[in-house]
């Protein structure tokens, strides 16, 4: 794997041979299969369905998960490297992958019983089935547990779901969407595997996003949507399981910031080495070098932070506040980095064809999902002070 310009401290040398091979596989895929088509799909607000069989052939999900719902050794670092390499080129592709292999697969792995693991895991792992994760609601974003209004009513051998879900990635074409709903009888949040085409499950594609335009986010309306008891996640009996799933995926979101910043920096560096003004390469100007070094410092610090975070996760010692701090720091540093990269391009920085504009826009979504900056800050603040700012 040739050294990337954005790998100043040789992060790759800390990985296993297997992880380096995976990184090379993902990098090749992103550069040959995704880069040539991404701007067209990003402009059209569409996910390229042709990527799904190609991602299936890459077989990345099995690098993280086993069929029985357990994680592979070093899964968190491996997943982080996959996400980083994806985001260097295109964050939307990483989000498609993260929703499927992170949120949806983790819901089944942590909440499913043996029968459900047998039925769903191999198909999800082989991408024969695409997953989505429906938690957020129009009125319940940050206050996701307390604000969860979607209801589940037991009726004989089935459940009847009513409510709305907003922002649900992949849901416009997913084969199965995990819907989190509140049981009317015991008030607990439970998970339901809603299969595509189930009557009463309707998805409208959210239009007009300025970030992650290649990801299809859906607004789901559930009206008297009937799901069999067999498709209720049997081991997810309270919001605790939902929180476990989110904890498992938060490190991945921090890695998105790393990859996105790396991609933007590498583009800016190349531009600074070639673009000329006042008879010089713009990279010769001290102020531009300051931009480059500021970006490189940010992303190198982000890489080291995430590597340690994922190491802690793999060792089973990562707590919520560890992941939350990494999300806060990487999203903020990524935002600063992509802005400097965009600035380095001058006017060309707002043109899609120069690449950096997509990183600039996509960062805004990274900044706000999987816990906004404020919410993750409060999670860390509570842990370090012993005082909760939440009501
Ligand atoms: P709000 O909760 O309304 O927050 C608005 C502002 O108020 C924010 O700045 C927030 O930090 C601040 N705020 C709220 N409470 C406090 C407080 N106590 N103290 C200080 N400030 C506060 N969800 C899914 O379930 N599945 C998905 O696949 C999914 N994909 C997404 C993809 C994209 C592109 C986006 C943008 C979102 C996605 N989400 C998804 C939802 C995402 O997790 C929420 O948008 C996020 O949790 C924030 O919720 P909200 O947008 O309702 O903002």
Automatic annotation (TrEMBL):
<feature type="domain" description="Acyl-CoA dehydrogenase/oxidase C-terminal">
    <location>
        <begin position="242"/>
        <end position="384"/>
    </location>
</feature>
<dbReference type="InterPro" id="IPR013786">
    <property type="entry name" value="AcylCoA_DH/ox_N"/>
</dbReference>
<dbReference type="InterPro" id="IPR036250">
    <property type="entry name" value="AcylCo_DH-like_C"/>
</dbReference>
<dbReference type="Pfam" id="PF00441">
    <property type="entry name" value="Acyl-CoA_dh_1"/>
</dbReference>
<dbReference type="InterPro" id="IPR009100">
    <property type="entry name" value="AcylCoA_DH/oxidase_NM_dom_sf"/>
</dbReference>
<dbReference type="InterPro" id="IPR045008">
    <property type="entry name" value="ACX4-like"/>
</dbReference>
<dbReference type="InterPro" id="IPR046373">
    <property type="entry name" value="Acyl-CoA_Oxase/DH_mid-dom_sf"/>
</dbReference>
<protein>
    <submittedName>
        <fullName>Glutaryl-CoA dehydrogenase</fullName>
    </submittedName>
</protein>
<dbReference type="Pfam" id="PF02771">
    <property type="entry name" value="Acyl-CoA_dh_N"/>
</dbReference>
<feature type="domain" description="Acyl-CoA oxidase/dehydrogenase middle">
    <location>
        <begin position="132"/>
        <end position="224"/>
    </location>
</feature>
<dbReference type="InterPro" id="IPR037069">
    <property type="entry name" value="AcylCoA_DH/ox_N_sf"/>
</dbReference>
<keyword id="KW-0274">FAD</keyword>
<dbReference type="GO" id="GO:0006635">
    <property type="term" value="P:fatty acid beta-oxidation"/>
</dbReference>
<feature type="domain" description="Acyl-CoA dehydrogenase/oxidase N-terminal">
    <location>
        <begin position="16"/>
        <end position="126"/>
    </location>
</feature>
<comment type="similarity">
    <text>Belongs to the acyl-CoA dehydrogenase family.</text>
</comment>
<dbReference type="InterPro" id="IPR006091">
    <property type="entry name" value="Acyl-CoA_Oxase/DH_mid-dom"/>
</dbReference>
<keyword id="KW-0560">Oxidoreductase</keyword>
<dbReference type="GO" id="GO:0003995">
    <property type="term" value="F:acyl-CoA dehydrogenase activity"/>
</dbReference>
<dbReference type="InterPro" id="IPR009075">
    <property type="entry name" value="AcylCo_DH/oxidase_C"/>
</dbReference>
<dbReference type="GO" id="GO:0050660">
    <property type="term" value="F:flavin adenine dinucleotide binding"/>
</dbReference>
<keyword id="KW-0285">Flavoprotein</keyword>
<dbReference type="Pfam" id="PF02770">
    <property type="entry name" value="Acyl-CoA_dh_M"/>
</dbReference>
<dbReference type="InterPro" id="IPR006089">
    <property type="entry name" value="Acyl-CoA_DH_CS"/>
</dbReference>
